Amino acid sequence: MANKVRVRFAPSPTGPLHMGGVRTALYNYLFAKKHGGDFILRIEDTDEKRFVPGAQDYIIESLKWCGIEPNEGAGYGGELGPYIQSERKDLYKPYADMLVENGSAYIAFDSPEDLELMRKQAADQGLPNWQYNNITRSSMKNSISLSKEEVEKRLASGEPYTVRMKMPRNQDIKFEDEIRGWVTVNTNNLDDKVLFKPTGMPTYHLANIVDDHLMQITHVIRGEEWLPSAPLHVLLYDAFGWERPKFAHLPLILRPDGKGKLSKRDGDKLGFPVFPLDWTTTEGETYSGYKESGYFADAFINMLSLLGWNPGNNEELFKLDEMIEKFSIERVGKSGARFDPDKTKWFNQQYLRDLSNEELGKIAEPMLSGNFETEYIANVCGLMKERATFVRDIIEDGDYFFGEITAYDDKTVRKKWKDNTPEIMQELLTDLSAIENWGTESIESVFSAFLERKELGFGQVGPGFRLLVTGKGMGPSMFEICSVLGKDKVIERMTNGISIVNEIKATA
Ligand code: GLU
User: Whose CA is nearest to atom 6 of ligand 1?
Assistant: First the structure.
């Protein structure tokens, strides 16, 4: 029987989770669920220097908001934990020792100063990219260049050391990537990476391979930026004698102009979020998040699902369970996926329209200042939702439902408020006041009868009417607006508004 699918998302808490990271988590999650497998969240915090406080909680909270729920992992528990690498610190050393013993790795005593000196000397000779590798290692201080006695002496005296991978010379490493096909890399271009640090911490490479093995990971699905590390990882599996997982390196997410990778700096600069949630740096700099910007989590996830994957047809709108059903790694592309902020808004609009008036009302209610009846708010949402991208648009564009008119649309006053408009409005007001059974239909029929009787076109009456009742030049059906606002409010606004608008017009 084939192994149960087990995949992991393994972010480093070096900052907030970028939307590219969320997409990696999402694809892992979809793949796991599609195959009845497990999705694991592992925090890779072995790089103490790059640790950012708060980042781990941010990652967990972000996945929660997105509805991407791990089966096991940091914050979720599980049998193969702990799932935070710093809490597993003590288990890595024996694995580093194992590699030294079987000759796949070696011990190096070079201090940071030694390495700096080598780099500088090489640069002075016109070689700016000095590497610790299968050629230079013989002139460095390590268990390959030094005698066995010398190495033992240094170890006995407690001299700090690192463990480095002994990258073989001129060997082609081959592995099959589920997205890119066969990848071949010659080891002559690869350096002897540090696997274990003098601080007693493993580096990312060692911890990642050991944990993927111990956590029984079957597929490594991660961003393209990790492709250059994959040959080393493949060699590490071989060096341990462990079965390699399958690899799938996801395409980059590109900036909207297609020029380069979408970075965290692009977002607020170009006017869209690149993070799921707001993030404030220790220096007090804030980056905006999708959540706080008013996006629905399912719209955000839907948009992300299509950044690199497609279902094979034109369908675009899927909730998480449909995504699971349709997802396949075969349909993930190799080339970079261009992020489109306008399309992201479009997704939000579709999800907003899909919500019932009552659901929208519940979201809008806490955003309102003042108390309004639940049914009233829902009715306003029903009227405004076709034109809204975010719930806040309903509140902003429909401000006349939740407060008095504070301004009259300038252009409408200038162009549509004619000399005879006040008189027409006054007469319309009289007709409307006579309605006993106030509602969309009765208002509409009184209005139509008014146009007919006065032999006026809609354009001579409609804009002035809208201006008096809403202050705006555009909006949903006036009959529905009036019905929701109620007779008293409409009559009051028309009565008071005529002289106010006359005044504005006179002083304009
Ligand atoms: N810790 C790595 C990161 O920050 C994980 C890479 C991988 O998935 O192997 O993305």
Answer: 10
Q: How far apart are CA 84 and CA 35, in angstroms?
A: 25
Fold observed for domain 1-73+251-354: Rossmann fold (3.40.50)
Distance 84 CA to ligand 1 centre (A): 13
For residue 309, the 8-state DSSP code is B
Ligand 1 centre distance from Cα of residue 225 (Å): 9
Contacts of 371 (CB under 8 A, 6+ apart): none
Q: Domain residue spans in the chain?
A: 1-73+251-354, 89-202, 356-403, 407-508
Residue 142 DSSP SS3 = strand
Check if 264 is active-site: yes
Look up the pTM and report it.
0.94
Q: Name residues contacting ligand 1 (CB within 6 A).
A: 10-12, 44, 204, 208, 222, 226
Atom of ligand 1 nearest to the CA of 229: 9
pLDDT in tens, the chain (508 residues): 468 999 999 999 999 999 999 999 999 999 999 999 999 999 999 998 999 999 999 999 999 999 999 999 999 999 999 999 999 999 999 999 999 999 999 999 999 999 999 999 999 999 999 999 999 999 999 999 999 999 999 999 999 999 999 999 999 999 999 999 999 999 999 999 999 999 999 999 999 999 999 999 999 999 999 999 999 999 999 999 999 999 999 999 999 999 999 988 888 788 899 999 999 998 999 999 999 999 999 999 999 999 999 999 999 999 999 999 999 999 999 999 999 999 999 999 999 999 999 999 999 999 999 999 999 999 999 999 999 999 999 999 999 999 999 999 999 999 999 999 999 999 999 999 999 999 999 999 999 999 999 999 999 999 999 999 999 999 999 999 999 999 999 999 999 999 999 999 999 7
Q: Which helix (H) or strand (E) holds 321?
A: helix 320-326
Beta strands 181-186; 337-338: pairing state: unpaired
The long-range contacts involving 263-270, CB below 8 angstroms and separated by at least 24 positions, are 264/15, 264/16, 264/18, 270/341
User: How far apart are the CA of 138 and the centre of ligand 1, in A?
Assistant: 31
Residue among 264, 362, 454, 489 flagged as catalytic: 264
Report the CATH fold assignment for 89-202: Glutamyl-tRNA Synthetase; domain 3 (3.90.800)
DSSP lists the bridge partners of residue 249 as 222
- Kindly give the number of the ligand 1 atom that is closest to the alpha carbon of 222: 8
Atom of ligand 1 nearest to the CA of 12: 4
Question: In testing the pocket of ligand 1, which one of 226, 236, 237 has its CB within 8 Å of the most ligand atoms?
Answer: 226
May I ask the CATH class of domain 407-508? Answer: mainly alpha
Report the atom number in ligand 1 closest to the C-alpha of 233.
9
